[in-house]
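Example (one chain per record):
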Amino acid sequence: MTMDIRLARVDSRLLHGQVATFWTRAVTPNRIMVVSDSVAKDPLRKTLITQVAPPGVKANVVTVNKMIRAYFDSRFDSFNTLLLTETVADMLKLAEGGIDFSKIGINIGSIAYNDGMTMLTDAISMNGDIAKQIRTLANDFHLDVYAQKIPAEKKENLLTLLDKKGF
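Predicted structure:
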């Protein structure tokens, strides 16, 4: 047995209102795992994230390596997990570490805009490096990588969106 990951989401805002309300209702986790090396080292951000978890759901902030170890540790088999990363790169590291996302795919909720990026959707910005990481998840790991802000919205295939914008 391994941990039950019910949603794997890339969201540059990590745990916020949409995730805490809509997504937790949709996937009914008992644990939110925020996976970020930088947030795990930042006591203020770590505290803020653990405090915004909805009632009845515990939030943890862990490094990428700690998440990989926990996934394979039978002590965490009871976790029904909503997994959040800040970047596609971190999600790719989790897949490379052996975490199986084949049943659920990878949800891309938001990627913050920075200089030199192109808007793919109203919430997802893209550059060549991120596009390559998404294609690796989709092609090398055979994962469904999709855009979906909230559960009520229709999923959009990320590869199709990348192709439309020339990535």
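Caption: DSSP finds seven helices and nine strands in the chain.
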